[in-house]
Amino acid sequence: MMTITASPFQEALELIDRLPTGDQEALVEIVRKRLVDQRRREIASNAQSTLLALREGRASYGTVDDLRRELEE
Q: What was the pLDDT predicted at 3?
């Protein structure tokens, strides 16, 4: 007989289903805040990389029209 094991994701969902509604709501809020914080860190990291590239002359800035002109050259 073949045993089918649940994925960690499915196991987590089943565990969450066993929590009281208030705990489920709190968990959703905690996860949402963590995702927002993670995205903020990603944005900050991208900004730092962009600023470094600008300082090192590896990046440039301008308008969309400037970009179009550069691509046409």
A: 63
Range of the domain at 46: 29-73
Q: DSSP readout, the chain?
A: -PPPPPPHHHHHHHHHHTS-HHHHHHHHHHHHHHHHHHHHHHHHHHHHHHHHHHHTTS-----HHHHHHHHH-
Prediction pTM value: 0.67
The burial class, CB within 10 Å (0-12 / 13-18 / 19+), for 31 is: exposed
Give the whole-angstrom CA distance, residue 11 versus residue 23. 17
- Is there a domain that residue 52 lies in? yes
